[in-house]
Amino acid sequence: MNDSTDSTLFPQEEEPIIDLTSDAYYMGQAMRQAMKAYETEEVPIGAVVVRGGRIIARAGNQVETLKDATAHAEMLAITQAENAIGDWRLNECDLYVTKEPCPMCAGALVNARLRRVIFGCHDPRGGAAGGSINILQMPGLSHRCEITGGVMGGEAGQLLKAFFSERRGNTE
After folding, report:
1. How many CA atoms lie within 13 A of 171 on its CB side?
2. Distance from CA of residue 83 to its chain's centroid?
3. In whole angstroms, what is the distance from residue 74 CA to residue 129 CA?
4. From CA 162, how far away is CA 130, in angstroms rounded?
5. Pairing of strands 116-121, 93-99
6. Bridge-partner residues for 94, per DSSP?
7. Is 55 helix (H, G, I), strand (E, B) or coil?
């Protein structure tokens, strides 16, 4: 083959490689759970728990489905992860969630001793990972989680805005 054929068949630009261990990949998996919640008319928040590079738990909000105020994606994912490893201590695990955790979920994440919490969109009014309070790193508690915020935050925020916009349109 000549050089012109090679460049047509094999463009010089490299195709992006999907990094299956990146924060964006795992947040994408959490977004899939948020979409499932959206499809069942739940607030579209999704979470996954990762241990050793493997997803061991996946959940979306199920507050309306289960008629349970504690059935947030994070809470359900924590319970699944604990069952998956046979221990309540999740200190070798990372949680990816599409929205900054609320105070209830942040308290549970600290108590379960998650190593790291990675979230999508910030919640300046009700977030407990630095939005309005930082329970995840509160001095005096038995554990502190590392925090990474804003991973795919635009996409996660848009999904929430679309959901609540639809709800307001349906009730008027």
Report:
1. 6
2. 19
3. 13
4. 24
5. parallel
6. 50, 116
7. strand
User: Is the pTM above the cut of 0.85?
Assistant: yes
DSSP 129: B
Considering the chain, what percentage of its residues have pLDDT values greater than 90?
A: 84
For the chain, the farthest-separated pair of C-alpha atoms sits apart, in whole angstroms, at 69
Alpha-carbon distance of 16 to 39, in angstroms, equals 30
Q: 120: closest CA among 69, 90, 159, 77?
A: 159
Residue 13 annotated as catalytic: no
Cα atoms found within 13 Å of the Cα of residue 166, Cβ hemisphere only: 12
Q: Which two tokens stand for residue 55?
A: 């997803």
pLDDT range class, residue 15, cuts 50, 70, 90: low
Where does residue 149 rank: exposed (0-12), middle (13-18), buried (19+ CB within 10 A)? middle
Catalytic entry in 39, 41, 42, 74: 74
Grouping H, G, I as helix, E, B as strand and the rest as coil, residue 121 is strand
More confident residue, 14 or 110: 110
